[in-house]
Amino acid sequence: MTTAASFDTLLPGLDLPAGRWHGPIWLSDEPLTEPGRYRDCVGAFERTGLWPVLVPHDDRFAATGENWVDDRGRLAPATHRIDAIDVAQTLSRWWDPFCCAGGTGCLRPYGANFPGLAKKSQLRVDPFAEAGNTGSILARRGTYRLGLVAVEQPADVPAALGWTGMIKSTDQVAAVSAVLRSWADRFGATLIVLGFDELELAVAAPPRLPGRALMVAAEHRAFSVRSFSGQPGNLREYAAGLLHRRHWRFSWD
Q1: If you average pLDDT over residues 197-226, what whole number do you get?
Q2: pLDDT (average), residues 50-70
């Protein structure tokens, strides 16, 4: 077992809380009390190869004393499969035209067919700086443990862990990471929160025009129907909420 003291040798200059390895993820034993530690770990990523994620407290496991990281199953690690995934084809396959009551009205102006990928946004802010700032703000406002995962890029965390948060929709965790890679490339979107069945991204280059936001909304809807169906209105109204929005959240509960 790796102790906090020995683990700190991998991150010289960082004051980590007590923690230990849980398989492929290192977790602090207690919630973060110093939110700036998240930003410090982001800043050290290029040197350490360990991407920090915030792991939220989940009341659903409080009664049983379970820790989903240890007590719920994982898929096989799948980072080696990410490069082979076609993101447009994947989202098209995940596009469900039957979730709307009484037809496809909630998908207007689209319908039964996925409209394709949105164009790349112009990057004006460093994605890692955005991730560090947003993650630190979240850590200050909520209850999160600090997680660290060895990956080449933040998008690979779900595949590296064999994460099962999306299992109600798909068992293809490599495809989840492939979508996150694509969003990182096109929108500067960076994974900052990973829970039992949820993830959150800091977004450095969100859509700035309604037409672009509508295409991004379609991608969100294909990626997580649950996140979309939990919102009022139709796809166009959902898209309006994505304009300039620098924080994306998805769930599969």
Answers
A1: 95
A2: 87
- The reported pTM is 0.92
Give the whole-angstrom CA distance, residue 203 versus residue 176.
Answer: 17
d(CA 26, CA 227): 28
In angstroms, how far is CA 228 from the centroid of its own chain? 15
Q: Which candidate, 187, 173, 172, 171, places its Cα nearest to that of 220?
A: 187
Instruction: List the structure tokens of 129.
Output: 């700086």
E strands within the chain?
19-22, 25-28, 50-56, 144-150, 189-194, 198-203, 247-251
Q: If 0-12 CB within 10 Å is exposed, 13-18 middle and 19+ buried, where does residue 66 land?
A: middle
Q: Name which of 161, 213, 155 is nearest 184 in CA terms.
A: 155
- Map out the domains of the chain as residue ranges: 19-248
Contacts of 234 (CB under 8 A, 6+ apart): 105, 106, 107, 108
Q: Cα–Cα distance between 155 and 183 in angstroms, integer?
A: 9
Measured from the Cβ of residue 88, the count of other Cβ atoms closer than 10 Å reads 12
Instruction: Find where tokens 């965790």 sit.
Output: 173
Residue type, 91: L
Residue 168 CA to chain centroid, in angstroms?
A: 16
CB 125 within 8 A of CB 188: yes
DSSP per-residue codes, 119-136: PPPPP-S-HHHHHHHHHH
**Tokens 């010289």 -> residue:** 12
Tokens of 199: 């993830």
| d(C-alpha 108, C-alpha 99), whole Å | 13
